[in-house]
Design a protein that fits this description.
The protein folds into two domains: about 1-145 and about 315-330, Glycogen Phosphorylase B (Rossmann fold, 3-Layer(aba) Sandwich), CATH 3.40.50.2000; about 145-310, Glycogen Phosphorylase B (Rossmann fold, 3-Layer(aba) Sandwich). Helix 3 (about 40-50) packs parallel to helix 4 (about 65-75), helix 4 packs parallel to helix 5 (about 100-115) and helix 5 (about 100-115) crosses helix 6 (about 120-130). It is built from 15 helices and twelve strands. The two termini are about 25 Å apart. By secondary structure, it is of the alpha/beta class. About 40% of the residues are buried.
Length: about 325
């Protein structure tokens, strides 16, 4: 059976990690995945209906206007909406604030129209349940293809500690929020450095930055070459919709992690086990001091993190959830997952 995925682009990070990762598993279960990108013109939008006629459609992330939602619903046989962000809100850095009546109205419309809502975390699922009802809402986390990652090799004892952060230019604002903490860490630990994998690179007065231009082909190797993965999110509703991809990438590479206790960070990180939840400079400094010259500690925490990804956030661990959803949708017997 053919599944049509209506996406922003086949290369979009959400498409790669939430749909493309499952193509092999879909194929083994009798499903083929075909991508359609969103049309750029009104004529293209109007002709979309014919391409979706009697198809099972996975609409990813985008919130169409109400008339478009109606047209898609009327055309396709089954409609699944997949999302991994609080798309019914503006982002944390919007000067207009988080709440957006237009986004929320579109989210309500798609929640009511879809046969199933696939959310990347429980916060998003709860938001959808309010409008769609619990029976139509399923939690499937953003996943990692762990076969692409090798555990970071045990390093030799040294005075250096290489942190890594990966993200887009827009999310660099999160590093700016903790700039004072990072600057102080650079003063306290002179051989501490930060590798930034991005397409834009801030500089710091007291912390050495190693800029790495992001490419899909190099991200795994560059992450794996570090000692410690870091992340930070503002404490708000937009952040609680995030699905923790950065942390999962670090952990898949066998790195211990440090992040603030917001949203899924508190679910993914087991404090003192695979990483540290840190809010203040003292929290960060204590965590880094513990790892600074202790390669065995780094390796042990990184290995535990990899085990968590393998068991809860890998493609293999979650493929059956998607396949079961598709199978039950075909038979119109959805059960909340």
């Amino acid at each position: 059976m053919e599944i049509v995925a209506l996406v922003e682009s086949e290369e979009h990070v959400c498409t790669r990690y939430r749909l493309s990762a499952y193509k092999e598993h879909f194929g083994k279960s009798g499903y083929t995945l075909r991508y359609l990108t969103w049309p750029k013109s009104l004529l293209g939008l109007l002709s979309l209906a014919a391409k979706l006629q009697n198809k099972t459609v996975i609409l990813q992330r985008k919130l169409p206007p109400a008339w478009m939602t109606w047209l898609i619903r009327r055309s396709c046989k089954h409609l699944i909406f997949d999302f991994d962000d609080a798309i019914f809100l503006r982002d944390s850095y919007s000067k207009k604030g988080l709440d957006d009546r237009s986004k929320l109205a579109r989210f309500i419309a798609i929640s009511k129209a879809a046969d199933a809502m696939v959310a990347g975390n429980r916060f998003l699922a709860d938001s959808a349940t309010h409008y769609a009802g619990a029976a139509k809402v399923f939690v499937i986390p953003t996943v990692i293809e762990t076969s692409k990652y090798q555990n970071a090799p045990a390093g030799t004892l040294s005075d250096s500690l290489k942190m890594v952060w990966i993200g887009s230019k827009s999310t660099l604002q999160s590093l700016e929020i903790i700039r004072p903490i990072l600057e102080e860490l650079g003063k306290t630990f002179p051989n501490l450095s930060l590798k930034i994998i991005c397409d834009s690179f801030p500089t710091f007065d007291h912390l050495k930055v190693s800029p790495v231009q992001w490419q899909e082909s190099n991200e795994v190797a560059e992450i794996s070459a570090a000692d410690l993965g870091i992340c930070f999110m503002p404490d708000d509703r937009w952040s609680r919709g995030k699905c923790g991809l950065k942390l999962l990438q670090y952990m898949a590479a066998g790195l211990p992690v440090i992040a603030n206790p917001v949203g899924v960070h508190s679910e993914i990180i087991r404090h003192g086990h695979n990483g540290f939840l840190a809010t203040t400079y003292e929290d960060w400094a204590n965590a880094i001091a513990l790892l600074y010259k202790n390669k065995e500690q780094q390796k042990a925490m990184g290995s535990r993190g990899r085990e968590i990804v393998d068991s809860l956030y890998s493609v293999n661990a979650n493929a059956t959830h998607w396949v079961t959803l598709l199978n039950t949708l075909t038979h119109q017997k959805l059960q909340a997952g």
